[in-house]
Amino acid sequence: MVRRKHLILPLILANLFISHLSADEKSHLVADLDPFIHLPGAHLIKPADLDTMFEKGNWNRNPYFKWLTKDKSRAIFQRKDTQNLAVDLTLLEGSVPIEEAIIDFQDGEFLGITISIFNRGDGGSITAADFEARNRSLGRHLGQQLDVRPVRRTENPTQGLLTAGWIWISARGKAVLEHNPAAPENTEFLRMRLARREAGGAYEAATKDRAGATVTLSELPRNVAKKPDGSIYVGGVPMVDQGAKGYCVVASAQRLFEYYGIACDMHQLAQIADSDPNRGTSALVINKELGAIDHLFKTRFECLAIRHASGLVELVDDKYVGESISEKDFYKMISKWIGEGIPLLWALEVGHFEEDPPLEMQTSGGHMRMIIGYNHTTDRIIFSDSWGAGHEFKTMASNDAFRATSGLFLLKPTVR
Questions:
Q1: Separation between Cα atoms, residue 375 and residue 227, nearest integer Å
Q2: Which listed residue, 201, 212, 226, 401, has the most CB atoms within 10 A of its CB?
Q3: For residue 3, what pLDDT is reported?
Q4: Cα 88 → chain centroid
Q5: Is the model's pLDDT at 7 over the cut of 50?
Q6: What CATH number is attached to the domain comprising 372?
Q7: What sign has the CA pseudo-torsion 196, 200, 201, 205?
Q8: By C-alpha distance, which of 102, 94, 165 is closest to 135?
């Protein structure tokens, strides 16, 4: 049986529907995301409207989307194809399939949407004809919505521009439709952003004609916050969800880039760094992947510490250097960079030490997190996982964190 749900908003959005077969038949759902790319209707959507637009029905969790943050400022829709559930995401009345969509809200108002129309990590491959069809259809749509002719974007690696495509900017909003330069013959990703005209951060950075952070190093300390219990941490780090792929490194890098106002997502970063979702996440692999990224985006990468034998040492030019770093010096590094408003990328072996809140299931192996703060009163470090809502602010005993560490990395903007 097919059911339809209508958005309870002004009439301009009244044609929204979600069709799906009941769980008693085949669990195949379809989510039409057109309301998020039609103007001015998209500007009227509130966080609470998502639950009305995409009801979970009899499912324990909403099968269409999930919140990436507890404050409901960011939600993600992901195409699914599992044994008991398939969720198709579409645009333009079902004519354009997509892989993923991230919706951002600010102060309870719609801010913008980032859509992965195609990416190799999720979609595998795409024909040149399919690429061209999706690209043309969405390009025409954006021109109609923003009522302005686009400006061509041409890749310029020397300036850090690693994508090609088109940019639209008008009083109604701004949009970017971009892809890796080798497309359509060798398509890695096709990405679209649509946002309010005043939207900053990655939305603003995506329209610039050169790469680099849209915030400066001198502005970052403003993001350092303190709780009454003594917790000192960096606030405002965007959340992403790496999904089932082993993309913890590039997912963490994306979060840092968004925090710095650099427009690049994990799918593009995975292509640049040659990340393999099935490959192990060793500290040396992390060092190689991040080292391939930094200069392209006007950022500086440094390996602060890496596990060698029984201790943590520096790594310079792929060589272990110096004596073991003490716990005291390890914590000094964390305190220094957190004080400057810069989260650190943290490689570790998970599952060996207790953390709060605890992992939902027994997990072990190499992983990357972000250290975002510390608490000297309770002697704990504060970290964040790229796993969505509930993973923004977590803690572990400092001595356990030191012992679990396989690598500690710095990735910061160079703009002062």
A1: 9
A2: 401
A3: 29
A4: 21
A5: no
A6: 3.90.70.30
A7: positive
A8: 165
Contact status, residue 197 vs residue 126, Cβ threshold 8 Å: no
Asked whether 305 and 408 are in contact (CB, 8 A), the reply is: yes
DSSP H helical segments within 115-188, as ranges? 120-123, 128-146
Q: Are 139 and 166 in contact (CB under 8 A)?
A: yes
Residue 193 structural domain? 11-205
Cα angle at 37 between 31 and 39, to 5 degrees? Answer: 135
**Amino acid at the residue 354:** E
Domain co-membership, 347 together with 399: yes
Residue 94's SS3 state is coil
Question: Does 182 map to a domain?
Answer: yes
Q: What is the mean pLDDT of residues 285-314?
A: 82
Q: How confident is the model at residue 22 (pLDDT cuts 50, 70, 90)?
A: very low
Distance CA 2, CA 4 (A): 7
CB atoms within 10 A of CB 69: 17
Q: What are phi and psi of 266, to 5 degrees?
A: -65, -30
Using the structure block, give the residue that is written with the tokens 């995401």.
89
- Report how far Cα 367 is from the mean position of its chain's Cα atoms: 16
Q: For residues 46-71, give the mean pLDDT.
A: 94
